[in-house]
Amino acid sequence: MVEDAREELLTVREVARRLRVDDTTVRRWIKSGALEAITLPHRGKRQAYRIKKSTLDQLLNSSLPVE
C-alpha cells in the first residue's frame, strides 16, 4: 500500500523531452516558480531537481499557455 502512495518523479531532462523544450527552459520555469519542483542536494555544476509526474500532468492539462 505504501508503494501506491509514492509518486513518479521526473528529471529536468525527462520533462524537457516530454514538453519538447530545452533543459534550460525547464530550469528557468522552476526558478521563476512557474513549475513546482523538488530541490535535491547540490552536487556538481548544476542544481538537481525532480518534478512530480502529477505536476507535469496538471501543466499539460491546463488551458494556460506556458511562456
Q: Describe it for me?
A:
By secondary structure, the protein is an alpha+beta fold. The protein has a single domain (2-61), classed as Multidrug-efflux Transporter Regulator, Chain: A, Domain 2 (Orthogonal Bundle). Helix content is 46%, strand content 12%. It contains four helices and three strands, in the order H-E-H-H-E-E-H. Strands 1-3-2 form a three-stranded antiparallel β-sheet. Helix 2 packs across helix 3. 13% of the residues are buried.
Give a quick set of tags describing it.
67 residues, alpha+beta, Multidrug-efflux Transporter Regulator, Chain: A, Domain 2, 3 strands
Write a compact overview of the structure shown.
With 67 residues, this protein is of the alpha+beta class.
List the helices and strands and how they pair.
Elements: H1 2-5, E1 9-10, H2 12-19, H3 23-32, E2 38-39, E3 49-52, H4 53-61
Antiparallel strand pairs: 1-3, 2-3
CATH topology: Multidrug-efflux Transporter Regulator, Chain: A, Domain 2
Which class do the helix and strand fractions yield?
A: alpha+beta
Low-confidence parts, pLDDT < 50 over ≥5 residues? none
What CATH first level would be assigned? Mainly Alpha
Helix run count: 4
Give the percentage of residues in beta strands: 5-15%
| C-alpha termini separation | 38 Å
Q: What's the helical proportion of residues?
A: 40-55%
Integer count of domains? 1
As a whole number of angstroms, the C-alpha radius of gyration is 12 Å
Query: Per CATH, which architecture?
Result: Orthogonal Bundle
Strands in their spatial order, largest beta sheet: 1-3-2
InterPro entries: DNA-bd_dom_put_sf, HTH_17, SinI_DNA-bd
GO molecular function, one term: DNA binding
Pfam family, one: HTH_17
Protein name: Helix-turn-helix domain-containing protein
